[in-house]
Amino acid sequence: MVYIMPIGMNAMTDEEIKQMNRNTHELIRLAKVMQKTIDKSPHKILLVGGNPLGHSIPFDPQTKSGKVLRGLVDELGINAEYFDIWKNPEDEHQLYQDSDVLRTLIRYQKAGWIIVALGKKVQGAMNRYVEWSKDRYDYDRNLKYVSLPHPAARRVRDLQNLRKGLEKLVKKD
Questions:
Q1: Cα separation of 35 and 41, whole Å?
Q2: Which residues pair with 114 in a beta bridge?
Q3: Distance CA 156, CA 41 (A)
Q4: Taking the model in full, what pTM does it have?
Q5: Which domain holds residue 20?
Q6: Is the pLDDT of residue 164 over 90?
């Protein structure tokens, strides 16, 4: 049997292709199971962090904060999305504010999502976004958020407070 492969891709054996198909089908099955769980969950929470620190997604599962946070979200059955307010460490260092970020946060809030700022630095930045939203929008569209400890916190008490805070948000709905 001959397969046409894209340029730069090595030819695969029949067994490798069969294994890849099995993996693909398993991933599709798991995605469907997860989507059913998410669709049933009334808990819509936007978890806001600083910057992805060289990773392509906020709270990457390979990082300590990603492992802790994603583990809690899965355990509590929360319909969560992850969002970073800065795109790189330079923006974070300068505490750069972006109007696209403010519009995104307001859009989530209007759609009924609870916005959660994780960590003191992000909470400080969110305070500035709140002030900015007061200048730009009517009172009823002001940005509102909940503050919780960062998932990479070293103190056990902070991690316990993170868990309690997320549990409280889940029970609130």
A1: 10
A2: 45
A3: 28
A4: 0.71
A5: 13-42
A6: yes
Question: Does one domain contain both 100 and 158?
Answer: yes
The rounded distance, in Å, linking the Cα atoms of 2 and 12 is 10
- Which tokens belong to 135? 């200048």
CA distance 154 to 63: 14
Report yes or no on 141 lying in a domain.
yes
Residue 116 has pLDDT above 90, yes or no: yes
User: Are 83 and 166 part of one and the same domain?
Assistant: yes
Secondary structure (H, E, C), the chain: CCCCCCCCCCCCCHHHHHHHHHHHHHHHHHHHHHHHHHHHCCCEEEEEECCCCCCCCCCCCCCHHHHHHHHHHHHHCCEEEEEECCCCHHHHHCCCCCHHHHHHHHHHHHCCCEEEEECHHHHHHHHHHHHHHHHHCCHHHCCCCEEECCCCCCCHHHHHHHHHHHHHHHHHC
142 CB burial (10 A radius; 0-12, 13-18, 19+): middle
CATH classification of the domain holding 82: 3.40.50
Token representation of residue 152: 């990479």
Whole-number Å distance between alpha carbons of 41 and 81: 13
